[in-house]
Amino acid sequence: MTAVRPSLPESIRAALAGKLSPVAERWKSFSQTRFGSVVARAFSTNAAWILLLLVVLMWLFNFLAPGKFLTEFNVRTMAVNVAVLLVIAVGETFVMATGGIDLSVGYVMLFAGVTSAQTMNWGGRNPTDSGWDVVLLGLAVALGSGLAWGILNGILVAKAKVPALIATLGTLGMSWGFAEILSNGQDIRYIPSIIGDMGSARYFFDKIPLVVIVASIVAIAGAVVLSFTKFGRYTLAIGSNQEAARRAGINVDWHLIKVYAMSGTLAGFAAFMSLAIFTTTTISGHANDNLQAIAAVVIGGTSLVGGVASVAGTTVGVCIPMVLFSGFTILGYQSFWRDVAVGAVLILAVYTDQLRRRRRERR
Amino acid sequence: MADPLLQARGIVKSYGHVEALRGCDFDVYPNEIVALIGDNGAGKSTLIKILAGSEQADEGEIFLEGRRIHVGSPFEAMELGIETVYQDLALAPDLDGSANLYLGREIMMPGVLGTLGFLDNKAMRVGARKAFGELGVDLQNAKSAVANLSGGQRQSVAVARSVAWANKVVFLDEPTAALGVVQTARVLETVKRIRDRGVAAVLISHNMRQVLEIADRIEVLRLGRRVARFDAKDATIELLVSAMTVGVAEEGAA
Hints:
heterodimer, A: mainly alpha, two-stranded antiparallel sheet, 15 helices, 2 strands, disordered N terminus, B: alpha/beta
């Protein structure tokens, strides 16, 4: 009855098909090779696209500001600024992989930094010349503080069944308040010089900062644990279908507590790294750490509903806001353009994730 | 007849004011397919959940091979050799078939790596291919997430998962509800294979034709009690329907 009108004239379509089909053919045969199937699979995830975006952005800024953006100094500065955030984002990746969220990380980090610094300043003494015993004690207190808040988050979420958004919003406020109370809102500026030296140390021909190496190790370890161990498998299984995990005999509550405890402990470790870099507690500097970490995780392709997560993606997701910030600053734009751009990238990341899910469900 | 493998006696379960089971009995004999039928709300799913450990009975006793058992959790049921294929497919959709098959029972790497928690994905994939092969399921892409599979393949993964681990009883709650003709035949074939391996299969189904075709015995629930038991060869659809809707005063009298 109704004549089907071709959307493109037949001749043009045929010509297009003729032009495109060799490309499509080549892609098809390529995607069947061993390497090709890896590439094809990689581009079915967000991580690869986001990495492409990062490379394009870096190329673009380097093109617009030649000799200014991709300098050794600027790259190193960006890497140091990203290191602390990467460590808490790795923990956040695991939390979000379970389908949860940890809003408290930035302020738990602040709390851990304050308790650690105060312990090292115990009795009003100046710890600048302290030895390794004091440094290790400070590290232990930072890790312990983070662990304690993490366990509390985990118990609230897993046992008390308080939704993660609210539980960690609550501990956000509490850890923030305690940090301010303990420190009277004053930054603690005396940190053992050993710690400060670690913060400025560089290795590999004096090129790569120690904090960047340490953050990379944390990220690689996180990626390995998520992909190759039982802990990672259970984390994804719980995020994918908590009831299925429970029925399979996994102790879901205990596992959730462990995941939140890990996130808290990493926040404590990040606090120690922050002390090393800035040699002060930087009380006012953590207002957005939690949201930045969550944005990085989501940009990196970790699903908001859990079950799908990638530490590699998170690593790229941490870098993109930094590259935007640095790029805009070098080009002389207001750095707030970064926030605009990050917001847009965030929405795009979640939108493409939704698209993929819908396509999958239609099958 | 041999002694029952699994027995439930006087199971009572209420949800608030709703009595789902009111003194329900149930028997499973070794090497049989027993169909559990009943109208909606008769208590089939509740009974299965209690026997599989995901719900606790308010009253009543459960015996396995004559021994009284307490099934406090699905995990305890599994340890007793009782597995369940749930109506709502208890799979993790984002994980692949082999990860789902081995979920909760992962094969670890040998040696130190295993102690550190590293998975032996290769061994699990080999095991999965074998388990799926036994069911005639061909998962073309073993690394593909279960969510990417068709409904039938997903059901096959769920069935394979239970069959692979059960050594006493497998419960199947409407295993073919969402399936096409070919897949249904395949799942039913699997249920027969379960029995031939010496494991009892309990099948919940609304499809009377299917029940008569595959089951050795049929037990009928009505309003939270067992009201009838049939040998499949003596049963007809009319008999089953009348037992489900009107009830038969067989219990106690027999």
